[in-house]
Design goal:
The structure is a single chain. By secondary structure, this protein is α+β, with helices and mostly antiparallel strands. The protein contains four helices and 15 strands.
């Protein structure tokens, strides 16, 4: 079924706590894992066509606190389109207008090959990468360089139209914004939680582990974590069907 994880914060943070829980989701999604983040204006994408819990590299991300970013996107894959290969593993990465975009999707889309992609040619065979190229082609045609509320509205309409082709949850980013869309027929769910001071004790849902965030976090840190299913004991909220939320610097800047 694939699962998604996204983070948007007002300052660079580590992903290791959330990823610690998220990598357990590979038990039911064994065909690949990946993570994208922004060390600076450029994106770094690490991915493998193997089960995350069996990967020494994913264990490194779980344990290493010095990898920090304001935005993270991660994905564990159950292959529904395309072979189990690196080229078909999420997240995908492309440049547009001098920005690195990264994208991950869960769901299955029919007739996706009919969507125009312009010069953004997919490398792999997945519906996900093709749709990513289609979205970038659409953004290029609209010449979206500086986002406005009308651009967000039009993008929401575009995502709803793509959703007509099947099941569609997605997350993507240009390094400034984190875009999250939930399938209009509620396929596979999507949830979010706000994390800000005062911090308390958090227990992971996927293993017997808890941590007092007040000992780990700077009080000035704030942001949101988005995941297919809640990762912790915190008060997560469910996305509404067809809801599109845009985050920037740890704040919600658009929601429809």
């Amino acid at each position: 079924m694939c699962e998604l994880l996204g983070m948007s914060f007002n300052q660079p943070v580590g992903v290791n706590l959330s990823f610690r829980s998220f990598r357990h989701r590979s038990d039911k999604n064994p065909h690949g894992w990946g993570i994208a983040y922004y060390p600076d204006e450029s994106a770094q994408v690490i991915k493998e066509p193997m089960k995350a819990k069996e990967s020494p590299l994913s264990k490194f991300f779980r344990d290493y606190p010095r990898i920090k970013s304001k935005i993270f996107i991660s994905h564990v894959r159950y292959a529904s389109a395309g072979e189990n290969a690196h080229k078909n593993t999420h997240p995908f990465q492309r440049e547009l207008f001098g920005k690195d975009f990264v994208f991950a999707h869960n769901g299955t889309l029919d007739y996706f090959w009919e969507l125009p992609t312009g010069h953004f040619t997919p490398v792999g065979e997945t519906d996900s990468e093709h749709v990513f190229c289609h979205i970038l082609n659409w953004l290029e045609e609209r010449r979206v360089r500086k986002w406005t509320e009308d651009d967000f509205d039009q993008l929401w309409e575009k995502l709803l139209a793509i959703n007509e082709l099947g099941t569609f949850n997605c997350m993507f980013s240009d390094g400034d914004y984190l875009f999250c869309y939930h399938d209009k027929n509620e396929y596979n769910d999507l949830h979010f939680v706000q994390r800000k001071a005062p911090f308390g004790v958090v227990r992971l849902k996927d293993e017997d582990f808890e941590i007092n965030l007040s000992h780990e976090k700077d009080p000035s840190q704030k942001g949101f974590i988005v995941a297919t299913r809640p990762l912790t004991s915190e008060a997560w909220k469910r996305f509404q069907p067809g809801e599109f939320v845009v985050f920037k610097d740890g704040e919600i800047v658009f929601s429809r």
